[in-house]
Design a protein that fits this description.
Number of helices: 2
CATH architecture of the largest domain: Beta Barrel
CATH class of the largest domain: Mainly Beta
Radius of gyration: 21 Å
CATH topology of the largest domain: Thrombin, subunit H
Strand content: over 45%
Length: 236
């Protein structure tokens, strides 16, 4: 069922004959359980791969505090109920800060006195357990399968819950072409796809900002795809 009526001006070409993925950055919430100048422990529903780097931020006294951390360990600790009444995994994740002896690191230090239970001070690394978990936001890079594409937009398949009419940044390239196309596109249509074990989504995306050179590369690929394996729209 479509959440937004789509008024498509250009016919999309099916990509069933070739696999192309689009990358986008999705903000995700977590809860800070303990924090120090050297790192942080967070609770999140996302599995974060070991050694990956993530930027995150939270608010303190009207000021945004941010830093970048490297994932050092992940532990599955349970589940919680998701938005679709399904069970969502819950992870504890330890991250090591990359910026310590900087203004960013000092910004982390300034918030500890307010949030920290000083009786639980860890001497090694000055880590503090928070009296109440603090909400934070970090960015996750996600890949989505492109099912159809035109010079004006694309149809993707993903397990992400994207917001209707919201603009997202996208990056993708095509087989045998190293040119990365970066653009902005907003959600203009949606259809849920159910199977016995999962619920996925088809989103129609209208490109709203594509640079001239990127649009030329996109047009070349669309023309080539027209002669190598067109498909009809999955939303028709």
């Amino acid at each position: 069922m479509s959440t937004v009526t789509e008024r498509r001006r250009r016919k999309r070409i099916g990509l069933g004959h070739v696999e192309v993925t689009a990358k986008t950055v999705i903000p995700s919430e977590c809860k800070i359980l303990d924090i120090g100048t050297n790192g942080v422990c967070v609770a999140t529903t996302q599995w974060l791969p070991i050694n990956n780097n993530y930027s995150f931020k939270f608010h303190h006294n009207g000021t945004t505090v941010s830093n970048t951390g490297t994932v050092r360990w992940v532990k599955l600790v349970g589940t919680k109920k998701g938005s679709n009444e399904d069970s969502v995994p819950l992870y504890m994740t330890g991250m090591e800060f990359k910026s310590v002896l900087t203004d960013i690191g000092r910004g982390i230090t300034r918030v500890l006195d307010r949030y920290a239970d000083k009786e639980d001070n860890r001497q090694n690394g000055n880590r503090f357990k928070l009296k109440q978990p603090a909400k934070a936001v970090f960015n996750i890079l996600k890949e989505c399968r492109i099912r159809q594409i035109s010079t004006g937009g694309m149809l993707i398949e993903t397990d992400l819950d994207l917001l209707p009419d919201k603009p997202y940044s996208w990056a993708f390239n095509f087989p045998s072409d190293d040119h990365i196309i970066c653009c902005t596109g907003r959600i203009v249509s949606h259809a849920a796809v159910f199977s016995k074990s999962s619920r996925r989504h088809h989103y129609g995306i209208a490109f709203t900002d594509v640079q001239k050179e990127a649009r030329k590369n996109l047009a070349r690929f669309v023309i080539d795809a027209m002669f190598t394996g067109p498909e009809t729209s999955l939303l028709n």
